[in-house]
Design goal:
244 residues, single chain, 7 helices, seven-stranded antiparallel sheet, alpha+beta
């Protein structure tokens, strides 16, 4: 199981000893290419201090499973509290969260992964954070909680459970070529207008609007603005000496 391991302190921890964070990122297997951002596991130990409060930048849809303290999460007026399985749709707003000592598994869905795994339009889940076990778009992942929220399960067992469940749910989608073209064009940042984005994707503006609503969660215009913001934010965060 390949992994990247990071250790650090949350930037906004306050009071007492600073919490310890251990993060492990597992690149998805080749058969899932283009479907996920990563599978990641995080251990947060607040050392008996207060919960960590921070913000997550806008991201694609994801599911997170917790053992230990349970989170409070908010995106705009949408809120989930005390749930062992928290899910979010694609977001254009930051997610504010509060979390104490806990172990978490997270799975991030790229638009192609959303197309293969989730039957609900991404637009209907945009800027939504919820109890994944109760939301119809995400309830299909709820059986994973039996393993990912089990403190006795090993990391290898949990990672194997993720792969097994994703294999079981994965279904090819007829729009995949369109999805990949639009995603690549957005990431490249070379399109200055919706018409250029449609041309890069090899489709009409009307088809582009349908694809973006169904799998990306936002209109083409908002997606382009969102991507420009994320590029600027990333550049600022990675600037040497910056205190973002």
């Amino acid at each position: 199981m390949g992994e990247i391991e990071l250790v650090g302190d949350p930037a906004r921890a306050t009071g007492g000893e600073r919490p310890l964070v251990l993060s492990r990122f597992h690149p998805p297997p080749e058969r899932f290419e283009g479907c996920f951002t990563t599978f990641y596991q995080l251990d947060l130990d607040t050392g008996g201090g207060p919960p960590v409060e921070d913000y997550l930048q806008p991201e694609w849809g994801n599911v997170r499973f917790f053992t230990g303290a349970l989170p409070v999460a908010e995106i705009g007026a949408s809120r989930a509290e005390g749930t062992r399985f928290t899910a979010t749709g694609p977001s254009s707003r930051p997610c504010r969260f509060r979390l104490g000592t806990s172990r978490m598994w997270g799975i991030g869905f790229l638009p192609k992964g959303w197309a293969r795994l989730i039957e609900t339009d991404a637009y209907d889940c945009a800027n939504v954070v919820c109890d994944g076990e109760r939301h119809p778009a995400f309830a299909r992942f709820a059986p994973l909680a039996r393993t990912l929220c089990d403190p006795e399960a090993s990391l290898d067992e949990q990672y194997a459970a993720i792969l097994e469940w994703m294999d079981a749910l994965m279904r090819p989608n007829r729009d995949e070529i369109k999805i990949v073209r639009v995603h690549e064009a957005l990431v490249s940042g070379e399109c200055a207008s919706v018409a250029e984005l449609a041309d890069a994707g090899g489709m009409s503006i009307r088809t582009l609007e349908r694809v973006c609503r169904r799998y990306f969660g936002f209109t083409p215009k908002l997606l382009m603005r969102r991507q420009r913001f994320m590029r600027s934010l990333t550049a600022f965060m990675l600037r040497e000496g910056s205190r973002w």
